[in-house]
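Incident log, entry 3
Record: Flagellar basal-body rod protein FlgF (396 residues)
Problem: checksum mismatch between cached and fresh output.
Input:
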Amino acid sequence: MLESIYVGMTGLLGYSRGLRVIANNTANMNTPGFKSSSLQFADMFYTGGNLGGGIASQNYQQLGHGLNTTGTTLSFKQGELRQTGNDLDMALDGQGLFVLKDADGQLTYTRAGQFKFDPNGVLVSRSNGSTVMALDGEGSFVEISLDGQMTHPGSPTARIRFGGNLSSTAAEQTVSNVQVIDASGEAHTLSLKLKNAGSSAPGSWTVSLMDGTTVVGTGEVKFTDGKPTPDATVVNVSYTPPGKAAQALTLDFGTNVTSFASGNLSTLAMSSQDGVGPGALSGAAFDAKGVLTMTYANGQTVKGARLALARFDTPDAVGSTGDNQFQMLDEKAWHVGTAGEGAFGKVKSGSIEISNVDLSQEFSDLVVMQRGYQASSQVISTANDMLQELFSMKSK
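Fresh output:
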C-alpha cells in the first residue's frame, strides 16, 4: 500500500507537469512566433512480484513503480501568417528562422520577425534589442545598418531626351526649361536654340545649348522625310556648371522627334533627363529573398544587406530560451542560408507568424490531465484508507 501511495504520487507529479505545459501553451496562444510543446510520458522501472527486489522471470510477476516524464517536445508546425502593415514585421513561409545576436555575442534564433531600426540605424528585435544578422559575400554574419544610407546622393545628368515636332518651315526654334542636374545634385535650367540650314542643307539644323546667353556647345541634327537621320540624332557637348567640374551631356533627338511642315509652330520640348537630385530615405523593407530595399524621396531604390536564416534537421536540436527565441543544441543538425534557397522559405514583409497553438487540442489534453490527476489522487486516498484500516485492525 505504501508503494501504491508512491505510484499515485508519481501520477500527481506527472499530470501536474502536463497541466503546466498546457497552461504555458494556452497563455501564449497570441504570442508571435511561439511554438507549442507537449509533455512526453513514460512508465517507470519494474521489480519482481515478490516485492523484495527479486528478478521477475515472467511478465506477470512484474510490478511497476508509476509514471515518469521524459521532457517536452516542440512542435514547429507553421502558424498562421497575419498581416500587420509594418514593413519591418516579417514572417517566414518555410522552415527557416531569423538569426539574432545578443549583447554578449551569443546567437539565438526566432520565428517572431518583429524588428525595428534602433537610434544607431541597426536592425534589432523589438522584444529584447538583439541584433538581426545578415550574411555578407563571404558567408559571415554581419549586422544590418542604415549607417551612410540615410541620404541618396543622386546622379548627374548624362542624357537629355527631346520629343515633339520641329517645324521644317521655321527658321529658328528655342526650347526652354532644359533641366540639368550637376554632380552635387544642384539643378540648372538651360535652353536650346535650333537654326534651320534652309535650302543649303535641307533637313539640317544647327543645335546650340545655351546657359543664359553663353553657348555651352553646338552640334547638328538631320531629318530625312521628316524623320531623324539615324547617324545624326545626337549632339554631344561638355557643360561646366559655375564653380563645378565639367560634365558630358548627350542631347538625344531620337525616335520621338519629327520635323514636318507646320508653319512656324513647333512642339519640340525636353521629354526627360536621367539626372537625379539628392533624396532622403523614405522607406526600408525586405523583399521575398530577404534583401533590404531602401527607397528615397528622389524616387531611387538601393539594395542592401540580405537576411541570414537558419534551419535544423530535427526538433531535438532546438531549445527554447524565452523572448520568442531558440538556441542551438546540436550544431551538426543546423544549417545557415538565405531566403529563397531550398527549405529556408520566403520572407513575407508586413506580416508576422502567430502562435501555432491549437486551442481545441489543448482543451482536450486538459481534460485528460484533469482526469488523470483525479484518478491518481483517488489511488492515494484509497491506499491511505486501506492503511488506516490496517492500523485499526492491529490496534484491536
